[in-house]
Sequence to fold (152 residues):
Amino acid sequence: MGVSGTLEYISELMSSAHKHKKKKKQSQTVNLKVRMDCDGCELKVKKTLSSLSGVKSVVIDRKQQKVTVTGFIDQNKVLKKAKSTGKKAEIWPYVPYNLVAQPYAPQAYDKKAPPGFVRKVENPPTTGSAVKFEDPYITMFSDDNPNACSIM
Fold:
């Protein structure tokens, strides 16, 4: 290798080192809940999301109203693009019910959730603020209850 070859090699090393300083986007998966009623809706959402740069795949489960987008993408850009179709879209709000401390709390329970899932609740309600239900069997024989049964 001559002097010019060595210089080219060094400049190549320096330029490639400079390129690696840029933060490389991580491949990630974004799950969305998108309201889709028919094949046309599904096709429109798939086509629109597939056109985003960095998208590798778009998988749609219409029964669950779930869209899974994979690639070198930004979650907020994917959501914005999904909303641009005119469909109601949000980041997938559900988690398996066994990951939630109180799956039947009013904030977590959602009858539209897929089987085995509840809404993701960031701050589950504390016992003080939760609606308190009294056990009817405890008050059935209570002295405090004027309509209570009495055992003779």
Observations:
- The longest strand covers residues 28-34.
